[in-house]
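User: Just a sanity check before I run the rest of the batch. Below are the structure tokens for the first item. I only need the designed sequence back.
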């Protein structure tokens, strides 16, 4: 019997899935996050964590039987992956759980910005009149969407964009032009081509040293005056100061940001801009993604112990 410690709240379907496995014994953390961790981890063969449980060196040293850590979600910032691997503990996550939600959020943001939805909503609530010309928007149809990064999320954004009748171009040095073609995107070898040619730029690269400020001064100053930029990746991929500068000078039409240098964002210059839509890192925050994340985590545990 393998002991699986569920350290945070897990979707009921995922728990049922785990509990239906005869060879697994499931322990659920009924106290606050982290409180029972040290005592339970000593006897656990596997642990499922979400965002809040920190699997540090100290925790791993107490985990005498631990063979598997599953992070229900993508980011592994709360797990000392290197040390776990040194100790022979496998670390898995659920990268395919939320890409649909993030991709859909890109269009929620783009349409909100292009159709002035937040401003129009306030206008109606505040009984400001019925001057609809004030809110004349733009269609997505016929526009060029430029993707910076075309992995899981970027590819799904490309698919949805085609349904809107958009042309898709993409910059990603690690994806071949024939693979991009399969997603309906045209490969650009030069990042600045994305800036120059796009009506909507959408950023989908992970935050690495190599992608920090990938979208910087040159990029932002090469964008069309009528273009917008959407960021659902990580804040520091865009140089936020340079972005604020082009927005303040009306060098681009607007920005929709789900992620920031510091979250929540405190920069008054950014918060006071009109042509900007800000959401609090909501990309993956849907009921479907949440459920999928938990079910995928449960499936990883079952898959790991299969045949052991
Ligand atoms: P992915 O790994 O499938 O794709 C990332 C792509 O970026 C890859 O194709 C890779 O080749 C490309 N890339 C790497 N370095 C690059 C560079 N220097 N220039 C251009 N392309 C480069 O990841 P994904 O699932 O598509 O997710 C992308 C990012 O979205 C994640 O890393 C995460 O930061 C972010 N994300 C945000 C939310 C949210 O709630 N807003 C949720 C999930 C993920």
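Assistant: Here's the designed sequence for the first item:
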């Amino acid at each position: 019997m393998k002991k699986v410690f569920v350290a945070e709240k897990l979707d009921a379907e995922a728990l049922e899935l785990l509990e239906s496995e005869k060879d697994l014994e499931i322990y659920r953390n009924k106290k606050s996050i982290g409180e029972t961790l040290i005592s339970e981890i000593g006897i656990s063969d596997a642990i499922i964590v979400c965002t809040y449980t920190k699997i540090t060196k100290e925790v791993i040293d107490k985990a005498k039987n631990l063979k598997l850590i599953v992070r229900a979600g993508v980011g592994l910032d709360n797990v000392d992956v290197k040390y776990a691997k040194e100790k022979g503990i496998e670390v898995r996550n659920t990268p395919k759980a939320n890409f649909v939600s993030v991709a859909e959020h890109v269009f929620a943001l783009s349409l909100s910005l292009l159709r002035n939805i937040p401003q129009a909503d306030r206008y109606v609530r505040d009984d400001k009149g019925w001057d609809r010309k004030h809110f004349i928007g733009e269609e997505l149809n016929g526009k060029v969407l430029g993707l910076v990064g075309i992995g899981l999320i970027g590819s799904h954004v490309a698919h949805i964009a085609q349904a809107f009748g958009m042309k898709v171009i993409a910059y990603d040095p690690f994806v071949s032009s024939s693979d991009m073609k399969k997603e309906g995107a045209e490969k650009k070898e030069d990042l600045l081509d994305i800036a120059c040619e796009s009506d909507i730029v959408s950023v989908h690269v992970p935050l690495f040293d190599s992608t920090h400020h990938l979208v910087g001064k040159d990029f932002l100053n090469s964008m069309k005056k009528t273009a917008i930029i959407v960021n659902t990746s990580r804040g520091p991929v865009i140089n936020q100061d340079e972005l604020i500068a082009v927005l303040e000078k009306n060098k681009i039409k607007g920005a929709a940001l789900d992620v920031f240098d510091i979250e929540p964002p405190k920069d008054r210059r950014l918060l006071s801009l009109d042509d900007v839509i800000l959401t609090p890192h909501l990309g993956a925050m849907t009921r479907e993604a949440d459920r999928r994340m938990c079910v995928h985590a449960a499936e990883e545990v079952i898959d790991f112990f299969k045949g052991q």
